Fold these 2 entries.
Entry 1:
Amino acid sequence: LHVAASRSPSGTLSSVLSMHMEYKKRIFTPGPTEVPSQVLQSLARPLVHHRTGFFREMHLSIANGLKYVFRTENPIVIWTSSGTGAMEAAMANVTLPGDKILTTPCGKFGERWCELASTYGLQVLRAEAEWGRVVTPGQVEDALKNDSGVSVVFTTLCETSTGVCQDVKEIARIAHKYGALVVVDAIAGLCSEELDTDAWGLDVVLGGSQKGFGTPPGLSFLSLSRDAIARIRTKGHPVYYFDLVKALDSLEKGDTPYTPAIALFVGLGEALKIIREMGIENTIERHRRNAQAVRSAVAALDLKLFAEVPSNATTAVIPPEGSASAIIDLMDKRYGIRIAGGQGKLAGHILRLGHLGFYNESDMYTMIAALEATLLDLKLNPSPGKGIKSLLESFHKDGPIDV
Amino acid sequence: LHVAASRSPSGTLSSVLSMHMEYKKRIFTPGPTEVPSQVLQSLARPLVHHRTGFFREMHLSIANGLKYVFRTENPIVIWTSSGTGAMEAAMANVTLPGDKILTTPCGKFGERWCELASTYGLQVLRAEAEWGRVVTPGQVEDALKNDSGVSVVFTTLCETSTGVCQDVKEIARIAHKYGALVVVDAIAGLCSEELDTDAWGLDVVLGGSQKGFGTPPGLSFLSLSRDAIARIRTKGHPVYYFDLVKALDSLEKGDTPYTPAIALFVGLGEALKIIREMGIENTIERHRRNAQAVRSAVAALDLKLFAEVPSNATTAVIPPEGSASAIIDLMDKRYGIRIAGGQGKLAGHILRLGHLGFYNESDMYTMIAALEATLLDLKLNPSPGKGIKSLLESFHKDGPIDV
């Protein structure tokens, strides 16, 4: 004990142990998500230079892999940035100063579209809903009917701050009916929800490496329809790093305008190979089953679901009043299972159980067992085992995924 | 032969072999630079979540390591972006619409400051020099004397497109004399050149992970003086992802406003540990010696130096007319040694030999031997061995670095 403690100039033995065990912890948040071992290992390959045929071929192969997931023939630009960077790229390139745009805020990420639009001085209409509910296509139609001249509708497929999934297909249909382009934040929705960029006519779709793609954060993606491409060629706002015209021109040759996060490209390439092998339909089905099983477990544990229309990416749960932080902390410290809490005004009020990414049934047992154990520790689990029993039944009913 | 070739649906045997050997190739470019093995291995650790004490502690420790390299007590913000992102962050946050600024272009990266300033609609003064030469402090003083009201001077320490190093210390002194802030692109200069942020009063200094820090690309850095911080609180241009106020506020708690490239933070932490152990003075001295030895080898091979004031980061060389591309290609294909060519109007006219990053004397022998061999193959090396002999003498005269 003395020896171990003396190794740490600052901490106690328990803090030393917990630091060393950090890499043992499991992540069950809506992002970042766990990275499969073969992806992690690929990050450690010697760095290759990006102005080479090798990198360009890899880049184009990754762009094709993304097209498979997005279900599109549209070009897909990859940014070295978080998903927010891709959101700003969409806002700054697809709108012109003074444009009137429509947003569909019902959580933190929908509000981010509004903040971005304000930053760029746009007129912002809001078809909004309380956090936890979804914005209906009817609301979008009313907004577009009452206020003409909306150039772009900015919406969100999975609003991970509240756990809902919105009807982006129908919202896009209505937007087009009124002559507006539609930009979809599908950062948490890609791989986990049905999404058909081309069949639904989505003009811009956004994704991020650290979500369903099981790659570390640092890359974001953006697909562009022909109409969106026509729009971005008129420059209105100042853009440089996020200049979509430069990015598209570079992409044709497999290049990026500036030095890309090469190691993360290598990792993403490996992750896309797995998704291709698994198939995108099976990937979405796996997410649907995990989400359904987790919801049944949560209900069996007498916890309330927060989301009106729950997504396959994350399950938002209302725990007994005042217990959220204690549950999250104890799951982390005692069981090494990291779930997420609420964001913004939901901080301290909800739990968010992540099942977005490369998670299988065993992972769901691990997470729900830790939740059950934590609730038991906190005297909030009157009949231990009910959650796991419900998971068992849900997965058993579904049978194995045909992969 | 038949079996190997049949494995590749598209390529010949030689293309298959060269693809498989890509990870064996050595990088001697001004960036990205080679990544030490312990940094590469750290990238493959299981992903940790960023909203945790573990990440915040790592982030603050990295920020401290960067302060040691920058020689500053100023806060240092880390962006998930290439160095160009940090350049845009500086331009967009430190200037106001309509500002008059001074640039010192003498190559591609100096021109980038001008392009950024135009993007943001600023009045751009230029104290410029031909590519290959440096902008003198006298030119900067003349420009500031003749045209009052310049708010910020944007300059470049190492202009890697031409291989020169500028007198940023003196440029900063003059800028301050005329009441202007000074922003220094030290992306290629950090770790390789003398730079003292606080003693020289540099208001904003920029760095990038893939340069002297030997970490894969994807992170950029930006230090802010008190005067710069006062300036950024007045918002003029639209900024969201690169909002420095938000980034500074988050940094106090060890946070980033948006999901950071976590795996690259882990790698950067390992790289900074090595730099600390080696010492920043020794690190710069190692770069000085490598650069000096490479210049002597280049002269011995009867190649001309391109840079008026050569930097420690890269040696720009004028090869015999019309031979640049052939030299670069053959060094890459036959010897697996990747150097860089010219950029912009220098494409096809110069070679750039990189010695920025974690390179030792053995690495310089490797690079110069490949250069000699390539020149021999191309019948451009009349007395083989002179380059290596010159390297031997240069390093021998210096003796071992006292580490």
Entry 2:
Amino acid sequence: MNINGVPHRTIWLAQDADGSAIVWTLDQRKMPHFFDFIALKSSAEIIVAIEEMWLRGAPLIGAAAALGFYLATTEIDKNASDWREQITEIAEKIRASRPTAVNLNWAIQRQLSILAKAKNLNEAQNFAQQTALDIVEEDVEICKQIGAHGLSIIEAISNQAPDKIVNILTHCNAGWLACVDWGTATAPIYQAHDKGIKVHVWVDETRPRNQGASLTAWELGKHGVPHTIIPDNAGGHLMQQGRVDMCIVGTDRVTRNGDTANKIGTYLKALAAHDNNVPFYVALPSTTMDFELQTGAEIPIETRSEREVKYIQGLHEGTLKEVLLTPNDSPALNYGFDVTPAKYITAFITEKGICTAAELLKIMND
Amino acid sequence: MNINGVPHRTIWLAQDADGSAIVWTLDQRKMPHFFDFIALKSSAEIIVAIEEMWLRGAPLIGAAAALGFYLATTEIDKNASDWREQITEIAEKIRASRPTAVNLNWAIQRQLSILAKAKNLNEAQNFAQQTALDIVEEDVEICKQIGAHGLSIIEAISNQAPDKIVNILTHCNAGWLACVDWGTATAPIYQAHDKGIKVHVWVDETRPRNQGASLTAWELGKHGVPHTIIPDNAGGHLMQQGRVDMCIVGTDRVTRNGDTANKIGTYLKALAAHDNNVPFYVALPSTTMDFELQTGAEIPIETRSEREVKYIQGLHEGTLKEVLLTPNDSPALNYGFDVTPAKYITAFITEKGICTAAELLKIMND
């Protein structure tokens, strides 16, 4: 999407001055206050970037993993007889860099099955590069299709009244910063905005890591989409007041019955939407489906450091400072995700179309 | 309650070195990082303390207003013939210092009706002092009674299993820091803890002003009550996981039908409690009832500065620093309260006993 009018992607493959392959990405840790494109020059640097969340978001992690796999193939001594084992070893390290990310596992698996067909290292490099680039382009295309399908929902609300502003609530960042371009939850919003439909986005700040207040607000602002940041506590009241026309969120994992894991707090917004007859949509690429799991009860929920609750980083007199928010000796608990039961989800917006939980398996398998 | 083993109150009347009346209170703006008792030496200083939230919480604001009214009576020239008008004028300024605070209005009204009986300034001073001290002591007694009634609920859960730890979720700060002592929502918790019942409190951080993470966590910690700070987003997941036995919150205003205004985000927790069969209690002194209003739709909801969402204060290398959390040019919206419909409230815990919404008018009028 646009940054100050110039189209950008979150990740792309390039060549270093010496001709070696490098991966460019955005360092999202300092956003929204500073934004830097950084060059990742090795699979080890890709692993650090995933582990330390320089980049985040399921599709972007998948793309980074696929590109990291390609970098790995360029790091092997061309005379090594165990090149296949060496690549596989690095692939497993990439896979372990963010254990709950389904797309990461999927991207590595796809690369490994193509690696199996390579007869030599040179072929392995070519296959891995092409697969990584395919994954990147496919992600852009998938998000674009999610956008096209979701656009119809926004358009229908917009048509309810002349000059209607469609108020859309979103949680966390399922935006282009989490993907390669367009985003998942934001794709319909960008397409509606680009088409001239009046939209306004309520951006949940999304404690404790504030991906909404920092990333979603940033990307909407840079693309020129009207938006307002709200505390996570406010969405219920806004829905009671009739100030939300629809919710769209992304997801980290959807089980066969439609139960949906997403950033902690999503479930509370789904409850409020249900209580106030506000439609609640989950946008997802089919790669986010986890066909192995029957229901949300089987989804493991990551617990992260309590430090993310007790401290926060922000801008103070031009530099980033981390401040303590709580009594130093009070413990904190930091769940990464929660599970929204399928019954609270109006529909899923996928690259293959819009469907209910009951139709999910069919549309995803088509 | 105790601060490191020493019993304290949040506000009390004392004499300055020159014999003039002063009011001591806690400056809650720097908490939990620093805590200072400060002397308020005039009604004007009381007004500033209420306006700028050095002190907050409906009952504490009421007590401060009553004491401020008494200070006002000591500030009038003893030869002034219009002493009654002068006091009334200051009283109206105190009343206007936090327009949505029901207890403030109630305390000023009570002082004014007693002022009407005073035959001279000296009598007005005596009456105002006694009324202020009565309001302070009554608040302590009311909170103690709320605690005694609520204790029975905690005790019943504790008795469900040997060594059962009762997990209680609370939102914002309806603790002793919001009252004179005990608190409203926390009173049952303190009484259970003091009785040796095993309790553990999930403390919602309560964005944007973080009264939970800063004040509730601080006061529970200082009194020795086990607790864990959680992001506001986490409560729903904890309830889904069966890790919450009950919720208790305070309230700023309850209407005749039992609809309950409380800190923004309370409604979301009530929805989650309802969805997971977790009992949801509202603790309130009868002074918080607003008999003028039929339902929550009539409650005006205060909108506060967007700055409270965009910036946050915390401790950095030993000093308080305010940091920017959002893109500088993104707007934010900051509602102070939301309304929880009576149907989501299991029962009200009042100084007169425990009752449902349907029984509220009867118990409060008894």
